[in-house]
């Protein structure tokens, strides 16, 4: 049993691999075929070899027999030799011997290797007296027979008389002493023929005869048909008497014979065919098996699908006993809908679940279904779920199992339609609500049918034409508008509508609608038609209508198409809101607004309002155009217009200041510059009110007043104030100078006078008088200096001339030539050629003189003075620069005194402290300025600014 | 009473002659030294300290002088003051009538007075006795 199983297993293994099994079968059969063919071939070859061996054996025996005969012949011949060594009756015996042996052609006696006796002599004359022991060709074989003491067959040799022959030589010893040879000459052909070579089947075999050379051991073949026969089947036999070898050779080549090849090939083909057959046979059940598997899989899938559908369906499915109403099977959704578990529901029937109000209908239908009166039914009904809530469901019942035409069980499919039901109820409710809304709406409402109007417009081919085209058409065809208006049908109106038109009943308005439309309305109606042609579904317009009493009323007219009627326009709602009162108040507001606006625009300042939330200006008054040149639109449309047009020098602080003040909720009032459209600068005073709501600044309101003129006046005022202050300062300074300089002299004079008065000696008095003179001179000098300064200061009509700067410098250099030469001063001038300045000639000379002299006077003791004079003119500012390499001035200490009167900084006795004082006064008088830069021990630079 | 030494620091050579005469007339001072500016005076003061010589009792100081003016001299004096054995009394003697100068003089403790030129013998007598 077990082995059978195992066998089955192996068989199955092969069954499952048809291709491999086919190949194995083919290989197995091929091997068997090969084996059989090979055996056949072997048998055939053995047969052949046996036949050839037997033939060769016979031939060899024959040859050996012949050779023995020859031996006998030679022996017989040898016996003719007597004791003295001479033959007796040679010819007679020889003749008898040749006759007795037909293979022998000649017999010879060769005493001492010399052929002495030959029979028959006539044919072999040439051989007579030939010493074979000295002939190179014959010597070796002859000597071999002597050595072995045996007969030896030499050759085959070519005979002089033609043909090939074998020479058998028997050595003869008389009394153990070599006498010579007894020899026979055998015709090879005859020998072989007598051996039976020619008797064989020449179509199958042939012979070959070879001699092995004694010395070289080379094999030489002696028969015709010397072609190479190594490829042919052959057998050989040795004949030792002459060192020969005899071959028998098959004529056919040693290849696999065709008779073996053909069956082999046929066998292999058969094996292959058999292998394919096996493969095909084995494959068949496999294919069938896979077909079965696929089918089974399909079946299983559909079962799973069905189960899935049943279990996962979004609808509840139940299999119900049609008699008891019990549930046989229900799906998950069914349970879920009703809130029961599978177990709970299996205990119940549908009757208990159904709402009592719906049960009777249900039972009747089931009865009908059971009796086969109906095939199925479907209805909306209520179920009561486990928690007691009522569920609306859509039930579909269809029979499942029938017996004898009666339905035993059925399938009930339930779908939750609670939401739908709810929606339906809601719709119902809202319908009622909307109806009352329509009726009781405080604005007049019309329900109008515009479908005829639309059709008319379609007829006229105006729908969806361009607005311009329609407008043009309506303008030229006013009757179309009138006609269209008559096509409006009023379906319904509400209470308010009746009130508005003082109508008694609805018919007055619905039927008598046409009467109500005023002329003004027709104009608006043209617009209405235009909107309809453009496919618009809503129109809002203000218009005037007449009441039933002919009283005109302002109404806000709103026309909108009820959704779903956008194409036909069969139902549209028109509301006409009475806005007569509103219009009136609007007009009042508008008027007051205009008044305010005109008021604002008359204010000589830009009134503005800014919304901090949108970060934009809401309003800017028209004054902006005259003050800044921009339009209010330009200002409002650009949110950064204001900061961008503030003067660049003011922008940062103004924006920052404004932000800070606004954040602190502080009203502010400040002044800054803005750039006018024409590029000029405008000074504005901006008074800003911050409006705060809920602790947050929401609006900024302000007014910008042009204060440019005030600012200019202020600037002028400041300038003149500065001027006056400066002059006052100078005056004060001057008065100090005067008082100080005069006081030092006057006090000296006073002291001297008192000393004179109290002097005791004449000598002392004289000394004092001398001193007094000195003081007087000094005072005079000071007075001169002061006079000069006063002259400079009061000289209003100072004459300026165009002066060549270089010429003036040269002149001053000439004046100072003595000092320049003695101090070895170098003066470098770097002045553009022909530089001309407008200056008072005396002042210029004085200025140059004083500064250059100063540079020489305060030269550095360690170096030669170097003075550099340059002139630059940049941005309308002309600067004359004079630098030296002198001792320098400590400006930290003396900066404020450099240009003071009688200010000296060295103990140089030449220093008077008047040169630079005069210089500065002269420069000031010319409207220029002088500055000094200096570094101790390096040098000093004076810069003179020239107007 | 010991006669005091007096130093006069002023750049006006005529004033120097006059003040010398007046000081001599007052007969209150043993020695008179004149210096052209503050620099000369301060250099000499330093030298006196180094040599341990006689310090002046009174210095008559002008304000407006080249090289080193009166105020600069007062600053320099303040720096070397700690080296002195006793305080040196300074009187400003100036022809200036500017109020600022007078006020400035009050900020220095060792300036005892502000004299306007001309200086009389009586002024000197007062200075000499005011100790």
Plain-language structure description:
The complex is a heterodimer of chains A (947) and B (131). Chain A has 947 residues and is an alpha+beta fold. Chain A folds into 6 domains: 208 residues, Beta-Lactamase; 111 residues, PAS domain (Beta-Lactamase), CATH 3.30.450; 145 residues, PAS domain (Beta-Lactamase), CATH 3.30.450; 103 residues, PAS domain (Beta-Lactamase), CATH 3.30.450; 88 residues, Helix Hairpins (Orthogonal Bundle), CATH 1.10.287; 150 residues, Heat Shock Protein 90. Chain A is built from 30 helices and 31 strands. The longest helix of chain A has 61 residues. The radius of gyration of chain A is 79 Å and the shape is flat. In chain B, strands 2-1-3-4-5 form a 5-stranded parallel β-sheet, sandwiched between helices. The mean pLDDT of chain B is 86. Chain B has a single domain, classed as Response regulator (Rossmann fold). Chain B is globular. Chain B has 131 residues and is an alpha/beta fold. At the A-B interface, helix 24 and helix 25 of A face helix 1 of B.
> How are strands sequenced across the largest beta sheet of chain B?
2-1-3-4-5
Characterize the biggest β-sheet of chain B: 5 strands, parallel
CATH superfamily of the largest domain in chain A: CHASE domain
Class per helix and strand makeup of chain B:
alpha/beta
Helix and strand content put the structural class of chain A at: alpha+beta
Q: Terminal Cα separation of chain A, in Å?
A: 139 Å
Oligomer: heterodimer
* Low-confidence parts of chain B: none
Can you list the strand order of the major beta sheet of chain A?
2-1-5-4-3
Q: Report, as a whole number of angstroms, the end-to-end distance of chain B.
A: 12 Å
Biggest protein-protein interface?
A-B, 27 and 25 residues
Number of helices of chain B: 5
Tell me the overall shape of chain B: globular
Shape verdict of chain A: flat
The name of the CATH architecture of chain B is 3-Layer(aba) Sandwich
Pfam family, one (chain B): Response_reg
Modified residues (4-aspartylphosphate) (chain B): 62
Domain Response regulatory (chain B): 5-131
InterPro entries (chain B): CheY-like_superfamily, Sig_transdc_resp-reg_receiver, TCS_response_regulator
């Amino acid at each position: 049993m077990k082995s059978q199983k195992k066998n089955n297993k192996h068989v199955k293994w092969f069954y499952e691999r048809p291709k491999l099994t086919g190949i194995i079968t083919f290989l197995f059969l091929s091997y068997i075929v090969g084996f059989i063919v090979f055996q056949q071939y072997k048998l055939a070859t053995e047969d052949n070899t046996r036949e050839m061996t037997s033939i060769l054996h016979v031939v060899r025996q024959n040859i050996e027999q012949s050779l023995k005969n020859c031996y006998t012949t030679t022996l017989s011949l040898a016996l003719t030799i007597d004791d003295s060594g001479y033959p007796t009756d040679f010819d007679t015996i020889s003749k008898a011997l040749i006759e007795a042996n037909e293979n022998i052609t000649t017999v010879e006696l060769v005493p001492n290797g010399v052929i002495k006796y030959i029979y028959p002599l006539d044919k072999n004359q040439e051989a007579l007296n030939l010493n074979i022991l000295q002939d190179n060709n014959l010597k070796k074989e002859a000597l071999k027979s002597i050595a072995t003491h045996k007969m030896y067959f030499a050759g085959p040799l070519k005979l002089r008389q033609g043909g090939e022959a074998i020479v058998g030589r028997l050595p003869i010893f008389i009394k153990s002493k070599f006498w010579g040879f007894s020899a026979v000459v055998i015709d090879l052909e005859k020998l072989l023929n007598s051996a039976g070579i020619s008797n064989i089947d020449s179509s199958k075999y042939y012979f070959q005869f070879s001699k092995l050379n004694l010395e070289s051991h080379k094999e030489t073949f002696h028969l015709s048909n010397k072609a190479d026969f190594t490829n042919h089947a052959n057998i050989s036999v040795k004949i030792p008497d002459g060192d020969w070898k005899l071959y028998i050779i098959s004529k056919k080549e040693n290849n696999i014979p065709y008779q073996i090849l053909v069956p082999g090939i046929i066998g292999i083909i058969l094996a292959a065919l058999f292998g394919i057959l096996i493969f095909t046979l084995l494959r068949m059940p496999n294919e069938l098996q896979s077909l079965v598997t696929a089918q089974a899989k399909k079946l299983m899938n559909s079962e799973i699908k069905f189960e899935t559908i049943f279990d996962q369906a979004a609808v509840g499915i139940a299999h119900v006993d049609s008699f008891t109403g019990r549930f046989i099977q229900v799906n998950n959704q069914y349970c879920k809908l009703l809130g029961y578990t599978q177990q709970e529901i299996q205990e119940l029937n549908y009757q208990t679940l159904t709402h009592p109000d719906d049960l009777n209908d249900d039972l009747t239908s089931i009865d009908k279904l059971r009796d086969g009166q109906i095939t199925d039914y479907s209805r909306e009904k209520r179920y009561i779920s486990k928690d007691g809530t009522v569920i609306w469901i859509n039930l579909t019942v269809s029979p499942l199992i029938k017996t004898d035409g009666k339905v035993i069980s059925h399938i009930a499919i339930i779908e939750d339609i609670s939401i739908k039901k709810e929606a339906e109820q809601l719709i119902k409710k809202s319908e009622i609500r909307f109806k009352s809304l329509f009726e009781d709406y405080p604005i007049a409402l019309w329900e109008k049918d515009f479908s005829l109007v639309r059709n008319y417009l379609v007829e006229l081919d105006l729908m969806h034409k361009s607005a311009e085209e329609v407008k043009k058409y309506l303008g030229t065809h006013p009757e179309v508008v009138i006609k269209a208006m008559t096509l409006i049908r009023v379906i319904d109106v509400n209470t308010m509508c009746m009130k508005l038109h003082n109508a008694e009943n609805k018919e007055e308005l619905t039927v008598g609608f046409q009467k109500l439309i005023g002329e003004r309305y027709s104009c608006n109606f043209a617009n209405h038609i235009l909107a309809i042609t453009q496919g618009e579904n809503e129109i809002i317009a203000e218009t005037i209508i007449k009441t039933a009493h002919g009283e005109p009323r302002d109404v806000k007219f709103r026309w909108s198409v009820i959704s779903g009627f956008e194409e036909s326009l069969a139902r549209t709602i028109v509301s006409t809101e009475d806005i007569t009162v509103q219009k009136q108040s609007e007009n009042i507001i508008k008027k007051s607004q205009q008044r305010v606006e005109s008021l604002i625009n008359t204010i000589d300042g830009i009134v503005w309002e800014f919304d901090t939330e949108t970060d934009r200006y809401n309003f800017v008054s028209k004054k902006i155009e005259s003050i800044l040149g921009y339009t209010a639109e330009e200002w409002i449309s650009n949110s950064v217009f204001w900061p961008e047009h503030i003067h660049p020098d003011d922008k940062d602080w103004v924006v920052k200041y404004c932000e800070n003040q606004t954040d602190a909720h502080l009203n502010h009032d400040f002044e800054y510059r803005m750039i006018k459209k024409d590029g000029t600068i405008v000074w504005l005073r901006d008074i800003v009110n911050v409006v705060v709501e809920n602790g947050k600044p929401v609006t900024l309101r302000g007014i910008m007043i042009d204060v440019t003129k005030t600012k200019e006046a202020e600037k002028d005022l400041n300038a003149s104030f500065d001027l006056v202050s400066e002059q006052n300062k100078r005056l004060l300074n001057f008065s100090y100078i005067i008082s100080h300089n005069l006081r030092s002299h006057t006090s000296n004079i006073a002291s001297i006078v008192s000393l004179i008065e109290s002097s005791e000696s004449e000598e002392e008095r004289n000394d004092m008088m001398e001193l007094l003179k000195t003081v007087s001179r000094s005072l005079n000098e000071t007075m001169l200096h002061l006079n000069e300064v006063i002259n400079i200061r009061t000289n209003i009509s100072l004459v300026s001339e165009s002066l060549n700067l270089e010429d003036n410098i040269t002149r001053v250099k000439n004046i100072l030539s003595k000092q320049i030469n003695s101090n070895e001063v170098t003066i470098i001038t770097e002045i553009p050629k022909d530089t001309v300045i407008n200056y008072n000639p005396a002042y210029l000379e004085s200025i140059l003189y004083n500064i250059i002299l100063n540079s020489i006077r305060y030269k550095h003791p360690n170096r030669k003075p170097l003075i550099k004079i340059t002139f630059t003119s940049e941005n309308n500012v002309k600067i004359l620069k004079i630098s030296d390499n002198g001792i320098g001035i400590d400006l930290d200490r003396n900066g404020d005194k450099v240009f003071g009167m009688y200010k000296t900084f060295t103990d140089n006795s030449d220093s008077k402290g008047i040169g630079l004082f005069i210089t500065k006064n002269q420069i000031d008088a010319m409207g220029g300025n002088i500055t000094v830069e200096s570094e101790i021990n390096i040098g000093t630079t004076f810069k003179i600014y020239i107007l | 009473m010991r006669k005091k030494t007096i130093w006069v620091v002023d750049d006006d050579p005529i004033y120097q002659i006059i003040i010398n005469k007046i000081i001599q007339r007052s007969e209150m001072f043993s020695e008179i030294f004149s210096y052209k500016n503050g620099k000369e005076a301060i250099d000499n003061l330093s030298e006196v300290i180094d040599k341990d010589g006689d310090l002046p009792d009174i210095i008559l100081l002008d304000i407006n002088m080249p090289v080193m003016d009166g105020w600069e001299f007062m600053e320099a004096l303040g720096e070397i003051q700690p080296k002195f054995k006793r305080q040196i009394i300074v009187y400003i003697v100036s022809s200036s009538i500017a109020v600022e100068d007078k006020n400035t003089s009050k900020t220095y403790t060792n300036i005892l007075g502000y004299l306007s030129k001309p200086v009389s013998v009586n002024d000197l007598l007062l200075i000499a006795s005011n100790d």
